[in-house]
Design brief:
The chain has 73 residues and is α+β, with helices and mostly antiparallel strands. The chain has a single domain, classed as Ubiquitin-like (UB roll) (Roll), CATH 3.10.20.30. It has 1 helix and 5 strands; from the N terminus they run ββαβββ.
Length: 73
């Protein structure tokens, strides 16, 4: 049984440990991609509030969209 799963984050494949929470995946992704903050997050096109990041367990094939604020005008 594999210990890693593959998910999609912002349209790109991302490997993480099986049984990872959304909070753990975001932390790992943010470090690898130098993302400082997120504004909103959707899993499989459904909004997930920050209060659920610790309890949501990612699954093989999940599609995560991370939206970050854009400064300027």
């Amino acid at each position: 049984m594999p210990n890693n799963i593959t998910i999609m984050i912002n349209g790109k494949q991302f490997c993480c440990a099986k049984n990872s929470t959304l909070a753990e995946v975001l932390r790992q992704y943010s470090i690898q991609n130098r993302v400082k903050t997120s504004f909103a997050l959707a899993v499989n096109q459904c909004f997930v509030g920050k209060d659920h990041y610790q309890s949501y367990q990612v699954k093989q094939g999940d599609n995560i969209d991370i939206l970050t604020p854009i400064v300027g005008g």
